[in-house]
Write a structure and sequence with these properties.
Blueprint: H1 2-9, E1 16-20, H2 24-66, H3 75-96, H4 104-123, H5 134-214, H6 222-267, H7 270-284, H8 291-310, H9 319-326, H10 328-357, H11 360-415, E2 418-422
Helix pairs in contact: 2-3, 2-5, 3-4, 4-5, 5-11, 6-7, 6-8, 6-9, 6-10, 7-8, 8-10
């Protein structure tokens, strides 16, 4: 029959609960209030019955306290009852006199504790009274059972309520997570706009610099610059030639002085060793030595080498060595003059370099190149920041579908059907 009606009228599609994302918190708050109201409605009567049962047990306990024992009981039973009765009454009064709060969240554990204490009392001292006061103890057990029954009802209601509240809070946490993502994406978009603006500004400035640098070769002041470059090149050529001459003389002399040092070491002449080593240090120093210091060192070292040459201890191997040590006076003068000239030539190169660097056109070029280098460094950092932001954006967006589906499922569990979650925020779409 059902199949026939479905074919006739069409199968009824399940209803879908539709709610906007912005309305979820208020809806959840309403659900929680409704759940609370239902809990209070369900537990009002059980609370009343528990209070009535407690009052009844208090009256029964008072009756037990005043009850007369059956004289026909065995003396031993009467003795046991006589000892157990006061303890039982005291324990029951203590359990039943505890306050039961009005709020269900506080009432429930207090009532459960009361029930537990009463059960322990019956199982404890109460068991000795069963034979002595069977009807009274039956009434006690009945009262306790009434409390237990109502507590079970409250337990079921609280379980439903807590399950509903847990679901509501979970849904609210998911909604908060989505709202946080929306807020974070908004901030990230603003940051991306600032980065893009800076990149545009930096890129534009670099383009302006490059355009200006391209005009430099055609600048009429390049004639002056080229002339200064020619002067610098000529000065560098003269200096380099002087360096080569100086180096040739220094290395040739050092070679002979090194031989002389070895002979002085063998002959154990420490003063001669010191003189020769000091001279070689000056000749091999990458800095141009002071001509006065060099002249003094050569004046002391040359005679030592000459003596060893004359004694046949040192053999001059080539014409360069023979040219130097045939006339050491001339050699000393030439080398010292070479050092003086080299110092002057180095200074001349420095001046030509300063003149070139200080020319307004080149100063402008260097300033533009430094600025461009700084801007390119800044541009690299901004691009890196944008890349990292895009990666974060992608990873964050990947979380949205999962969170949305979880939220829909939580709401679906509450309404018992399908859910359509609407949002007009493209950041969460």
């Amino acid at each position: 029959m059902g199949s026939f009606l479905e074919k006739l009228f069409g199968k009824k599609e399940p209803e879908v609960f539709t709610i906007s994302l912005g309305a979820v918190p208020a809806w959840l708050n309403g659900r929680e209030k409704t759940a609370r109201s239902e809990l209070l409605a369900e537990t009002t009567e059980p609370q009343k019955k528990i209070r009535d049962a407690v009052l009844s047990l208090q009256q029964i306990t008072q009756t037990i306290a005043q009850a007369e024992q059956d004289t026909g009981l065995h003396p031993k039973l009467r003795s046991i009852a006589k000892n157990s009765l006061p303890q039982f009454v005291k324990a029951m009064n203590a359990a039943l006199s505890k306050d039961l709060p009005d709020e269900i969240d506080e009432f429930y554990p207090a009532a459960a504790e009361c029930l537990k204490s009463c059960l322990n009392n019956v199982k404890g001292q109460g068991r000795y009274l069963l034979a002595v006061l069977p009807e009274e103890m039956k009434a006690v057990r009945s009262g306790i059972a009434a409390i237990g029954h109502e507590i079970n009802n409250i337990t079921a209601s609280l379980a439903r309520y807590r399950k509903e509240v847990d679901t509501i809070h979970s849904a609210l946490a998911l909604h908060t997570a989505l709202m946080d993502i929306r807020s974070d994406i908004g901030k990230a978009d603003e940051k991306n706009q600032r980065i893009t603006s800076r990149i545009t500004e930096i890129t534009g400035r670099i383009a302006v610099i490059e355009k200006e640098l391209q005009t430099v070769p055609a600048d009429e002041r390049m004639t002056e610059v080229n002339a200064l470059k020619t002067v610098r090149l000529e000065a560098e050529n003269r200096r380099d030639a002087a360096i080569r001459t100086n180096a040739a003389l220094s290395m040739t002399a050092s070679h002979v002085f090194r031989k002389a040092e070895k002979i002085a070491v063998r002959q154990k002449h420490p003063s001669e060793i010191a003189v020769l080593r000091q001279t070689m240090e000056l000749l091999s120093d990458h800095m141009v030595p002071d001509s006065g210091d060099l002249a003094s060192a050569l004046s002391a070292a040359c005679p030592i080498a000459e003596r060893m040459i004359a004694a046949g201890e040192i053999t001059l191997k080539n014409k360069e060595e023979r040219a130097i040590f045939t006339d050491t006076k001339q050699f000393r003068a030439s080398l010292c003059a070479s050092c003086t000239d080299l110092g002057l030539l180095e200074n001349a190169c420095r001046i030509t370099e300063e003149n070139l660097a200080s020319h307004p056109l080149l100063a402008r070029v260097h300033s533009l190149e430094r600025e461009k280098a700084q801007l390119e460094t800044m541009l690299g950092k901004e691009n890196q920041a944008r890349t990292e932001l895009e990666d974060w954006h992608l990873k964050t967006h990947e979380k949205i579908p999962g969170l949305t589906e979880e939220l829909k499922k939580k709401i679906g569990d509450m309404v018992g059907g399908g859910v359509q979650l609407q949002t007009d925020d493209q950041r969460l779409a």
